[in-house]
Task: inverse folding
């Protein structure tokens, strides 16, 4: 994962579970940006270019066990993407952002 392709990770629900992951711009999940269905791992990587800068996102995971039982977390997780030029996320665009860009150039 890199600056623009965050990895979403969660705890395993049960052996053999599959997961449904939703990513939205609102806590009610009325504006869903991405969905991952039938995920068999406990992480997904958001594709490059899928997120807007300086935006708050909410995400949630629902597990389905091999017996068909579903389990979900009652509250979504959230994160904020950085401003476009604020590469180190400190809220200021300065030479430290240039250093972060150069350091991550080969990623």
Result:
């Amino acid at each position: 994962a890199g600056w623009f392709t965050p990895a979403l990770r969660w705890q395993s629900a049960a052996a053999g579970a599959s997961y449904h992951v939703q990513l939205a711009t609102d806590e009610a999940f009325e504006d869903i940006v991405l969905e991952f269905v039938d995920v068999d791992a406990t992480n997904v990587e958001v594709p490059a270019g899928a997120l807007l800068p300086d935006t708050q996102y909410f995400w949630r995971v629902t597990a389905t066990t091999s017996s068909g039982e579903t389990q979900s977390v009652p509250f979504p997780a959230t994160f904020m993407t950085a401003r476009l030029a604020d590469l180190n996320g400190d809220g200021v665009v300065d030479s430290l952002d240039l250093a972060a860009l150069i350091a991550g150039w080969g990623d």
In short: The first helix runs from residue 95 to 103.
